[in-house]
Amino acid sequence: MFPAFYYSCKKMEFPNSDTKKQPATEPGLKSIYKNIFSAICIVAASVIAQYGYGQSKTANDRVPEYNKFLFGTNLGWYPPWDDYHVADVALGNPDYRVEGMGATSLRPVLYEHFLEKWGYDARLKV
User: Distances in Å between the alpha carbon of 7 and those of 3, 23, 25, 51?
Assistant: First the structure.
């Protein structure tokens, strides 16, 4: 708490208060030093946390790079297309002269209500 805020709070008077009005007292020197020390500690802690003792660390410094992701598409509800049409557009199908968009993986949707209605084997052919 900064001294200016402390002074303004001490001088506030509440007219509907049931307690006796006390004369405003000035804070002691000990209280002011305590507030200044607290503010310095907070600022120092935030600087240390932000800059890490002068070393700039990022996730790339600690986590090895992973380059095995595949381009793909999510199967789902795209009316009027079914999963076979979406797969043809994503992967390509020479029978229909469709080049495809270059996807190398498909991620089928397996919601619980879908599996209850159609079963676990519904997406095996796609």
Answer: 6, 13, 9, 34
**Burial track 88-124 (b if 16+ CB lie within 10 A, e otherwise):** ebbbeeeeeeeeeeebeebeeeeeeeeeeeeeeeebe
- Element of type H or E holding 72: strand 72-74
pTM (two decimals): 0.40
Q: What angle do CA 27, 33, 35 make, to 5 degrees?
A: 80
Distance in angstroms (rounded) separating the CA atoms of residues 99 and 45? 57
The phi, psi pair for 93, rounded to 5°, reads -150, 110
Give the residue with greater pLDDT, 16 vs 64.
64
Positive or negative torsion for Cα 72, 75, 78, 79? positive
Tell me the average pLDDT of the chain: 76
CA dist., res. 22 & res. 10, Å (int)? 10
Q: Which residues contact 122 (CB under 8 A, 6 or more apart)?
A: 114, 115
Chain centroid to CA 115: 31
Residue 86: Cβ within 10 Å count: 19
